Amino acid sequence: MKKGILTVLPVSLISLLFHTGALARDGYETERREMIAAIVETVTETRSYTGIDALDEQVMQAVAAVPRHEFVPPALRSFAYRNNALPIGEGQTISQPYIVALMTHLMKVDGDSAVLEIGTGSGYQAAVLARLVRHVYTIEIIETLGRRAEDTLARLGFDNVTVRIGDGYIGWEEHAPFDAIIVTAAPEEVPQPLIDQLKPGARMVVPVGPAFGYQTLQVLEKQENGEIRETDILPVGFVPFVKGDREG
Ligand code: SAH
Hints:
Blueprint: H1 5-19, H2 29-45, H3 47-50, H4 57-65, E1 86-89, E2 92-94, H5 97-107, E3 114-118, H6 124-130, E4 135-140, H7 143-155, E5 161-165, E6 178-183, H8 192-196, E7 198-208, E8 215-222, E9 228-236
Parallel strand pairs: 3-4, 3-6, 4-5, 6-7
Antiparallel strand pairs: 1-2, 7-8, 8-9
Helix pairs in contact: 1-2, 2-4, 2-5
The structure holds S-adenosyl-L-homocysteine (SAH).
């Protein structure tokens, strides 16, 4: 691991987080501190792609505060704070912490936002968002994963997240339009219903590309006139966006 300025910067951030009481005290403090340092390092390493020097401080605080070990299978707890994706069963994964932080940053949300997530998985990304926004609506197509995430989130006291089992392709019309949408599985093309359910001025963060092929993390920003402005951020590897029965 590289030493020097990259390892110095996070220390001040972490002491600030401890000072503000943002971090839970549950025996994983050291691991979380190292995870934050690893995220900061990866942000620096990828800035030639992303054009981003540092992630939003509130996003980093949210990531630093969520007990990631609660969202991974018990057998993998000791790996929970590594800056890697991990298997969560059913052939699915909890995303890499850096990717969770980056995608959250790109959503540009605040305490008034109502957001939609497609691909609840473990519920970890939803938990990070829940610390930043008014409400998270999240859809998971695999029932066992969705129910488990719902239980985990409830047990940890995240009362502003609603989980639905169904096909995220059609979005969640009853709660639309959204202030931001995040898709955590890769479709080959962005589902039109999700574009329709974005508010003007809102953003969708979505990995686009073939299953297990070359995918690009994109930001789609809906202009006030309804046009979509698309920005490529980074090459990524997500699990495929599954086509369901389209009945939600
Ligand atoms: N955000 C998750 C990562 C989940 S991986 C986390 O923080 O843990 C992507 C998830 O998307 C998988 O659980 C997969 O089952 C789900 N998924 C794939 N296609 C979907 C679809 N059409 N609708 C809803 N969920 C889908």
